[in-house]
Amino acid sequence: MSARKLGTVAYRVLWLVFLGLIAADLGFGLSAGPWWWNFAPVLLAYAVVLLANRWGGAPDTPRAARATVEVAPPVTGRWSALNSPADRTPSHGVHSYGQTFAIDILAEPEPGARPAFGWLWPLARRPRVFPAFGAPILAVADATVVRATDAQRDHLSRTSLLGLLYLMLIEGSVRGMSGVHRILGNHIVLDLGNGTHAAYAHLQRGSLTVREGDRVRAGQVLARCGNSGNSSEPHLHFQLMDGPDPDAARGVPFAWSGLGVPRDGEIFEAPPTVVGPP
Predict the structure, then answer these.
(1) Residue 211: phi, psi to the nearest 5?
(2) What are the φ/ψ torsions at residue 241 (nearest 5 degrees)?
(3) pLDDT digits over 204-226, tens only?
(4) CA-CA distance, 166 to 162, in Å (whole number)?
(5) Which of 33, 128, 212, 251 is deepest in the core (most CB within 10 A)?
(6) Residue 170 per-residue DSSP state
(7) How far apart are CA 165 and CA 172, in angstroms?
(8) Structural domains of the chain, count
(9) Is 149 left (phi over 0), alpha (psi -120 to 50) or beta?
(10) Is the pLDDT of residue 256 over 60?
(11) Do 79 and 176 share a domain, yes or no?
(12) Is 60 part of a structural domain of the chain?
């Protein structure tokens, strides 16, 4: 087990220990020391992650990362970018799960087609009202499927102030302790060769057209965009990484052929991709 993987597992275990101590203290009056002692596992959890990342190799910064890998876009049509590595790295605020250079994209078939943030109301929306829901997701290169999970439901959006706070403060923490599969939701990982893997997250349940071990061609439909996992609304989370396990992998910079890396808020048009002969 790699240092990064070990650190991630230890982080989750220590958080569970923390919750157990809090429950024992509040529910049964059991405590191993003063009240602040209950928070020791949390501090230790973050220390373990920092040490594991240091022992696990160089940090995933642009200067230390591998060369940019060019692949085809994973979608077609009109989309917008969010949390783009063109604006900052790590693009999602953390290096964990191999997502240093990850990007989120949302379907924008026309101005105003995507429901706006509700602030106070509605608290949540059904995923089907978002134009990204059900959009085809494509292989970015000829590759082998090494992970394909399709069991998690597509939940309501978190596109209100209360919904977003719930996602950030409660749901996200629970998913993080439950494992990377609960963060990514339904997802696919492709082995592109040369030590590069592509991950697609938050896919629609029941939409996967491939299984582990399948060979796919660039442009082939792999699944449909959904709202599973740690997602505020239907969108595609895409990233390249140097291994098949997001718990242990480091991020790899990407560029989409003909598009580069769209910046936050940038609207881009991905052309249709022609699937090559088998």
Answers:
(1) -130, 165
(2) -150, 170
(3) 999 999 999 999 999 999 999 99
(4) 6
(5) 251
(6) I
(7) 10
(8) 2
(9) beta
(10) yes
(11) yes
(12) no
